[in-house]
Amino acid sequence: MPLRLCLGLSTIAGLIIAFCNTLITGFWFSLWAAILLCVLPGIGVCLGNIIRKFIMPDAVYGSTGDVIQARLFWAVMPQLIGWFIGLMSAIGLLGIQV
Description:
This protein is mostly helical. The protein has helices spanning about 1-20, 25-55, 65-95.
């Protein structure tokens, strides 16, 4: 479930950035920006999920708060880091200065 959620949010964020950013003008540049801003962060999310499955611990011990915090971290954070790296690479390829 978290992977599909991250991919969906990544696509929505990419489309919002591509069509609401005033630095992106023209049909072809907007189309190219929409493709890059949807695909590269999506690839980052998928790579983050692969890394998460590889390095995630099998069990976490501690108090209830620590266990909940660790489970939330491992459910979302690697994909979020991959999304951010993909987004920054897409923005770099487009030449947009934030």
